[in-house]
Amino acid sequence: MVLDADAAWRLVLALRDRPCDRHTAADLTVRPDGGWTAPEPPVPEVRALLDLYLPLAASGTWVLGHLGQSLDGRIACESGHSAALNDDPNLDHLHRLRALADAVVVGAGTARADDPRLTTRRVAGTSPVRVVLAGARPLAPGLRLFTDGAAPTLVIRTAAAAPCPPGVPCVTVDAGPDGAPAPAAVCAALARRGLRRVFVEGGGRTVSAFFEAGVLDRLQICVAPLLIGAGVPAMTLPPVAALGDAVRLDGRWLPMGRDMLFDCVLRQDGPAAAEDGADDERRGLADRVGV
Ligand SMILES: NC(=O)c1ccc[n+]([C@@H]2O[C@H](COP(=O)([O-])OP(=O)(O)OC[C@H]3O[C@@H](n4cnc5c(N)ncnc54)[C@H](OP(=O)(O)O)[C@@H]3O)[C@@H](O)[C@H]2O)c1
């Protein structure tokens, strides 16, 4: 039986929730690192889905940062408006990453500009714990993250930050170089609460800080064929004197509707890059699964 996209996504979710079990899906063989083989190649859409999500589902610990940006490196207009920057398949992708994560993290700038819900409305799967990193300025208690009850919300702040909105669980950690909660301290605080699969959804300052702190296992940037001209920058890192000092990333590039997803592996001990489904040599390592 050839998997369709819905069945493949259900398999990914099942593997995420019971990583130690053998999983069953029509003749599909999944290795502990999320690599997979199938006697009959699935259609390209399903193959891409398995390649992208099985390694994340199979691993119990990862930190992944994602930004959707224009060709000229902006994640929002000067007004802060960022909705519809990317094509619909990337929105589905964001919701899938949420479904695979234990926690989804955003900076205070994003919480304020977007008033996001950070739930998994577009795909099957449970919404993660929603985490806001509080900055110097207060967060409005009326934000949907604090009022909609759609999933638990946690604020992580520094001792110097504005007080948390009343009634919202709040954790205080050390500050990083930019004064926001230090990424390593954020990840440690989440891990202490059993939240080890962490999706850092934005904005640019927050993903950049996590990258610079060296805590990201993966960085995904989805580039839309759009020129915004000016606006909120995507990655902002310390300047380099020469291009030879710039960070060149390894990974793979996947079309996502009209956009292109750059899926960059930053740490090899993070979730493994997906393997070719036809790799006979490694087939012997695989666990046989079937649904
Ligand atoms: N395209 C995408 O993938 C995507 C994803 C998420 C968000 N966004 C967009 O990104 C924007 C927010 O990103 P961001 O990088 O500005 O912030 P952010 O990463 O969401 O928040 C980072 C921190 O920066 C501080 N901050 C925000 N604006 C600042 C400013 N102008 N000067 C100094 N500190 C500031 C905030 O604390 P304070 O409390 O001190 O202000 C916060 O602690 C929004 O417009 C949102 O729509 C786009």
UniProtKB/TrEMBL annotation:
Record region (Disordered): 272-291
Pfam families to which the protein is assigned, alphabetical: RibD_C
Compositionally skewed regions (Basic and acidic residues) per UniProt: 280-291
Keyword Methyltransferase: no
Swiss-Prot/TrEMBL keywords: NADP, Oxidoreductase
Domain Bacterial bifunctional deaminase-reductase C-terminal per the UniProt entry, residue ranges: 62-237
Pathway: Cofactor biosynthesis; riboflavin biosynthesis
Listed GO biological process terms: riboflavin biosynthetic process
GO molecular function, one term: 5-amino-6-(5-phosphoribosylamino)uracil reductase activity
Protein name: Riboflavin-specific deaminase C-terminal domain-containing protein
Source species: Caenispirillum bisanense
